[in-house]
Write a structure and sequence with these properties.
Number of domains: 2
CATH topology of the largest domain: Rossmann fold
Strand order of the largest sheet: 1-2-10-7-8-9
Largest sheet: 6 strands, mixed
Shape: globular
Structural class: alpha/beta
Number of helices: 8
Radius of gyration: 18 Å
Number of strands: 10
C-alpha cells in the first residue's frame, strides 16, 4: 500500500508529543506538543489550510484568486506555503519588526510581502490588507483573527490528536494567545470530554489585554497583538498567566540547551508558564500539555540568539 501525500498540505498535523524532562523540577508532568513538525514549521499551518479549505468550499476563493492576510509572521508563512501548493497568489502584510526569517520565508514561497509601521501593530497591518483587498478583484482576506475556521481546525485536529496520544489523560492545557484559536478550540473540546480540565492562556506581561490591561510593546512574536481577537473564547479559559519577554527568551534558550528542543520565543513563554504551573503543590502528579508553536530557526536573527552570533 502506497503512502504518498497528494500535496504538502496533506502533511499538516499529527505533530508529536514529547515529555519535558530537565526544565521542570515540579511535581507535575509536562508534555509538549511540538508544532514545528508541520511542513512550514509552525502551528499556523493548521489554520492556513483550514481557512483556504473553507474559502474554496464556499466558492469565495476561486481558481487563480489571491489570498491576502495581515499577520505577525507565521500565518503569513503558512498561507504562502498553502497558496504555492494550490496555485493561488498570496499577499502578506505584516509589521516590519517581525523577524528577518519570516520575511525571507514568505518571499521564498512566492508571496508578495508588504511591511507596515510596527508602531501600528497588527491593527495597521489589517487596515492595509483591507485596502489591498479592495484594489484587487478576485481577492479574499484570510481573516485569522475573526475566521471561525481558525478555532474549528483546532477542535477537529489539535484537540483530537492530544486526546488520542495521551489516552485522554490530560489535566491541564496551556497555550499562548495570539488569535486565541488554539487555546479556544482545544480547550473547548477538552472541557466537553473532561469538564475538570484546567485551560490556561499565556500572554505577554507587557501587554496584558486578556485581563483588562493596556496593550504595550513586547518581544514575544506571535503572542499579544494590540487587540483581543474574535477567535479568542474567554469562556473556556480558567486562568491567564503573564510572562515577561526576558523569561520567554531565557526559557526558549534553556529548551534548546537542556531538552534539545529548538523552539521559538512564544514557545518559551508557554513553557515558562507550564513550569510555574507544574510547581504548584496542588498539581502534584498531574499531566500538563503545552503547545510549542514554532521552531527556533525562525528567530536566528533576533534577540533569542544574539549572544551566539560571532
Amino acid at each position: 500500500m502506497t503512502n504518498i501525500a497528494t500535496d504538502v498540505t496533506d502533511l499538516i498535523g499529527d505533530t508529536p508529543l514529547v515529555r519535558i524532562n530537565r526544565l521542570s523540577k515540579g511535581g507535575a508532568e509536562i508534555v509538549a506538543k511540538v508544532e514545528a513538525f508541520n511542513p512550514a514549521s509552525s502551528v499556523k499551518d493548521r489554520i492556513a489550510r483550514s481557512i483556504v479549505d473553507a474559502a474554496e468550499a464556499s466558492g469565495e476563493l476561486k481558481p487563480g484568486g489571491t489570498i491576502i492576510e495581515a499577520t505577525s509572521g507565521n500565518t503569513g508563512v503558512a498561507l504562502s506555503m498553502v497558496g504555492a501548493a494550490r496555485g493561488y497568489k498570496v499577499v502578506i502584510v505584516m509589521p516590519s519588526s517581525m523577524s528577518l526569517e519570516r520575511r525571507v520565508l514568505i518571499r521564498a514561497f512566492g508571496a508578495e510581502l508588504v511591511l507596515t509601521d510596527p508602531k501600528g501593530g497588527v491593527t495597521a497591518a489589517v487596515a492595509e490588507a483591507e485596502r489591498i483587498r479592495d484594489s484587487r478583484p478576485g481577492s479574499i482576506i484570510a481573516s485569522q483573527f475573526t475566521n471561525p475556521a481558525n478555532p474549528a481546525v483546532h477542535r477537529r485536529t489539535t484537540a483530537e490528536e492530544i486526546l488520542r496520544d495521551t489516552d485522554e489523560n490530560v489535566d491541564i492545557f496551556i497555550a499562548g494567545v495570539g488569535t486565541g484559536g488554539t487555546v479556544s478550540g482545544v480547550g473547548a473540546v477538552l472541557k466537553e470530554l473532561k469538564p475538570n480540565v484546567k485551560v490556561i492562556a499565556v500572554q505577554p506581561a507587557e501587554s496584558p489585554l486578556l485581563t483588562g490591561g493596556e496593550a504595550g510593546p513586547h518581544g514575544i512574536q506571535g503572542l499579544g497583538p494590540n487587540f483581543v481577537a474574535q477567535t479568542y473564547d474567554p469562556s473556556v479559559v480558567d486562568e491567564v498567566i503573564d510572562i515577561e519577554t526576558p523569561l520567554a527568551l531565557e526559557t526558549s534558550r534553556r529548551a534548546a540547551a537542556e531538552e534539545g528542543l529548538l523552539v521559538g520565543i512564544s514557545s518559551g513563554a508557554a513553557l515558562a508558564a507550564a513550569i510555574q504551573v507544574a510547581q504548584r503543590p496542588e498539581n502534584e502528579g498531574k499531566r500538563i500539555v503545552v503547545i510549542l508553536p514554532d521552531t527556533g530557526e525562525r528567530y536566528l536573527s533576533t534577540a533569542l540568539f544574539e549572544n551566539l552570533r560571532d
